[in-house]
Amino acid sequence: MKDKAIHSFLTLPVELVYRILDKLDTFTILCSMLNVCTRINVIVDAYRQHQTINTLQSLGNQLDPQTIYYLANILRHDKKITKIRLGNSTISDIGTRYLANVLQYNTTLITLDIRYNKIGPAGAQYLANALSYNTTLIVLHLGYNEIGDEGTQYLANALHQNTTLAALHLWGNKISSAGARDLANALKYNRTLIKLDLRYNQIGRAGARYLAHGLQYNTTLTMLSLEQNSIDFQAGQYFEIEMKKVPLRVWL
């Protein structure tokens, strides 16, 4: 009986490696295939040059800090991925710190979606610091985290300097009128934000008044979502004048 040839993955023909890659998603390729050895790196890079996949997605998985750290190191200088979606992946503040580091170096990422990840004020601060330098991110989705008013203040401060972010999703983050006040102040100076989603928070009448006042100085925001914020009819009237001045749509 002839001996069966046993091939190491590291020595497989390129064509066979490509077949393996065809069966894997982008997340697995980046986290499991890169940095195994120089040869595999070259093969994976060549493979990705001919792919149209530009989204890194992992939803509902338990991603520990070490995995996020490894992934972030790869993404810092990646030129293919433009969208990252890591919803409900237990990223927390530690993982957010690593992802924020990506934003300081990566020049192709336009969407970062990290909703449902127990990110608190510290994580928001990491992201805010990165946004002060980043010039490519267009959409930041932080829905249903725990950034609160403190985290909102960090992000609002970043909006004073950032010149590219167009959509900011902060629904379900325990933001009160204090956080709304900071965002309203940012809207006076920001000239790029088009959509601001603040649904399911605790903004109330006072917060609505702050936002309406901030919009007096803003001409770029066109969509403001405020549903489920204990905003009564009187508070809703604060926005009527602003909606006549610019093509602004407010959902209460």
TrEMBL record:
Task: Domain (F-box): give its ranges.
Answer: 6-56
Classify the source by domain of life.
Answer: Eukaryota
**Record key words, sorted:** Repeat
PANTHER family in the record: LEUCINE-RICH REPEAT-CONTAINING PROTEIN, LEUCINE-RICH REPEAT-CONTAINING PROTEIN 34
- What protein does this entry describe? F-box domain-containing protein
Source organism (scientific name): Rotaria sordida
